[in-house]
């Protein structure tokens, strides 16, 4: 295979190459050479060794083959924190920070919060790191995902209790002051599952293999038994699901049902309060 990095390539010349999006290119260059963004400038005349060129070529090829940058370098920033990633978990996305912000606004002092389907632990770790007074519990059905989440809690000095659970199965009769979730909500057969980064992410964390609402239905139906009176349930969902999720919440007796929009103007999170 022809190397994507020519002999004698310098850091400066590689920053100008047009193989990838400039941001992806810079991230992979920093990762391959173990350089900071500042060092890319101060060492612009540096000539890559043969080993460095081979390493960078391999990374560039993986990206050209479609693999997400976050999986290639094994990390992604979320809510100002650094998260380790593997293909066992979804890649945290900026729009999910809206769910964290809404949760923080509704989490009482020394409150108990449950994150359902935690994946990388991004939501739970962000909450626990920002609010060390809170008691944060996070669950997932995937042991591999929980292993990643535990590492992320440790590396970010966040105290989170992790449970291996299929939704509410391991929570027994526990109650919480807030429940949050970013569950699988893409409908089975949706064309987006075969496009872009989603091709590489765990399918079971993306789709419910049904109409996209089955996980949301289970959460909405089960949450009242685990929420204190007046506590909030907040859920992220698809770009076109806010009306359906509001209807689910209303049908189950939640109050103050509403949706919130992300920075792109998409109704991204819907929630309501229980009056049990």
TrEMBL record:
Which E.C. number(s) belong to this protein?
2.1.1.297
List positions binding S-adenosyl-L-methionine. Answer: 117-121, 140, 167, 182
What residue stretches are annotated with the Methyltransferase small domain?
A: 96-190
Q: Which GO terms describe its molecular function?
A: nucleic acid binding; peptide chain release factor N(5)-glutamine methyltransferase activity
Catalysed transformations (reactions): L-glutaminyl-[peptide chain release factor] + S-adenosyl-L-methionine = N(5)-methyl-L-glutaminyl-[peptide chain release factor] + S-adenosyl-L-homocysteine + H(+)
Q: Which domain of life is it from?
A: Bacteria
From the UniProt record, give one GO term of the biological process aspect: methylation
What positions does the domain Release factor glutamine methyltransferase N-terminal occupy? 23-74
Q: Which PROSITE patterns match?
A: N6_MTASE
Q: Which Gene3D superfamilies match?
A: DNA helicase RuvA subunit, C-terminal domain, Vaccinia Virus protein VP39
Asked if the Swiss-Prot or TrEMBL record annotates the protein with the keyword Lipid biosynthesis, the reply is: no
What this chain does, per the entry, is described as: Methylates the class 1 translation termination release factors RF1/PrfA and RF2/PrfB on the glutamine residue of the universally conserved GGQ motif.
Q: Which family does it belong to?
A: Belongs to the protein N5-glutamine methyltransferase family. PrmC subfamily.
The record's annotation in HAMAP family points to: RF_methyltr_PrmC
Protein name as it appears in the record: Release factor glutamine methyltransferase
Source organism per UniProt: Pseudoduganella plicata
What are the top taxonomic ranks of the organism?
Bacteria, Pseudomonadati, Pseudomonadota, Betaproteobacteria, Burkholderiales
């Amino acid at each position: 295979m022809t190397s994507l990095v020519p002999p004698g390539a310098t850091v400066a010349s590689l920053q100008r190459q047009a193989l990838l999006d400039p941001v992806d290119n810079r991230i992979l260059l920093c990762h391959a050479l173990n350089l900071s963004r500042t060092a890319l400038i101060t060492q612009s005349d540096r000539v890559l060794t043969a080993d460095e060129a081979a390493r960078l070529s391999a990374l560039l090829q993986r990206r050209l083959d479609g693999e997400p940058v976050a999986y290639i370098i094994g990390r992604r920033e979320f809510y100002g924190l650094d998260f380790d990633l593997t293909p066992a978990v979804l890649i945290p996305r900026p729009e999910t920070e809206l769910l964290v912000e809404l949760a923080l606004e509704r989490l009482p002092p020394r409150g108990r919060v449950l994150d359902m389907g935690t994946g990388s632990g991004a939501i739970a770790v962000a909450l626990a790191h920002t609010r060390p007074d809170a008691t944060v519990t996070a669950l997932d059905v995937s042991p591999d995902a929980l292993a990643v989440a535990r590492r992320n809690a440790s590396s970010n000095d966040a105290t989170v209790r992790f449970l291996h659970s299929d939704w509410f199965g391991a929570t027994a009769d526990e109650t919480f002051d807030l429940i949050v979730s970013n569950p699988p909500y893409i409908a089975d057969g949706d064309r987006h599952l075969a496009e872009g980064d989603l091709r590489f992410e765990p399918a079971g964390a993306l789709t419910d293999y049904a109409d996209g609402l089955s996980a949301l239905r289970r959460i909405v139906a089960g949450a009242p038994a685990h929420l204190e009176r007046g506590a909030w349930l907040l859920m992220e969902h698809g770009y076109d699901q806010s009306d359906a999720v509001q209807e689910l919440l209303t049908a189950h007796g939640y109050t103050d049902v509403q949706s919130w929009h992300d920075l792109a103007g998409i109704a991204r999170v819907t929630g309501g309060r229980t009056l049990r």
